[in-house]
Automatic annotation (TrEMBL):
The gene is LOC112294586. The keyword Flavoprotein does not apply. Belongs to the class I-like SAM-binding methyltransferase superfamily. RsmB/NOP family. This is SAM-dependent MTase RsmB/NOP-type domain-containing protein. Residues 115-135 are annotated as: Disordered. Residues 1-342 form the SAM-dependent MTase RsmB/NOP-type domain. S-adenosyl-L-methionine binds at residues 69, 97, 217. GO terms for biological process: RNA methylation. Signal peptide: none annotated. It comes from the Eukaryota.
Amino acid sequence: MASQFLQLATTGSDCEHSGISAGQASGAAVAALEISSGDHVLDLCAAPGAKLCMMAESLGDSGSLTAVDIARPRLAACRTMLLKYGLGRRTRLYLGDGTTFSLLPLNGGSKLCSASAGDDRSDDEDIGDGGFHKNPRMERKTVYGEWRSGRTRQEKRSAKRAKYLGIPLQTGVDGMPELFFYGIEAGVVGMKVADVARVCQDSNEASFSGYDKVLVDAECTHDGSLRHIVKYNEWGWDTFERRFLNEERIASITSLQLRLLSNGFRLLNPGGTLVYSTCSFTRDQNEGVVERFLASHDDAELQEVEPARQWPCRPGGLPHTLRFDPVTSHTSGLFIAKLTKLESNLLNKVVVG
């Protein structure tokens, strides 16, 4: 099987009539979201950035995209891609933990930004680098100016601190999400710091001012990725076995995947769409995680991925789930589950409560 993976990865052969190449199956996860203009979209695991760019392009002339990643260098790569292809105008990037991220979309967009600045904006301090002031009195008056390229003051301080401590600083200051980048139309410019950092306090709040579409392309063992298989052919298959066939590693990563999925669903609007995906072949990381999630969320329901009727893929182990693989699709491995948050169940819960 390994030699078959290698051949497909190196030839980059396309699926006949599909236009999906060996390295492009992951784009199906974005297509499954069916993003439309005006949607507020959340990407909980943004790096390395290809799907992020696809989602940004799908937004059109309205809506917003909020993206989160826990690793600073990987998030910097996402920012570079957005700027390179001119796709960051409606995007916010946050350095933070996707399992606990709680910031809601800025539904007002650029019009609200202008209104919030008001006539007294001259009294406010303009910060264009995503930094935060520690003085609470100053923070209330601080507004965001247009984002400026180059390393921000916050990044420089974080890098200096990490160097002093001798460890990489992976998350924002004090564990809070750090605003890493924002586009001119992301709803940030002109807003006060406290208004941008609007935290979801409970599930009811997220249910009425959350995200329309959420992508949880979860961290996984990458055992279905052709690019990773090529690397392990060079590094040695003992490394592959150590990383992917270790029971403790699998248990740890499935726990992470379940927490990412649960948090993404918490921030989803009623009637909204969430897509959970991995590039693993294992059932534990795919159907297993979804089954565990559904067992504790009676307001969640699996949905058909309608565009997949034309895709070269096969059914997964749960209704409406999908799997791509080198044999069926001539692509890397990919699992997709599309879920929606049921409005009726949610309303019943509120009434009963």
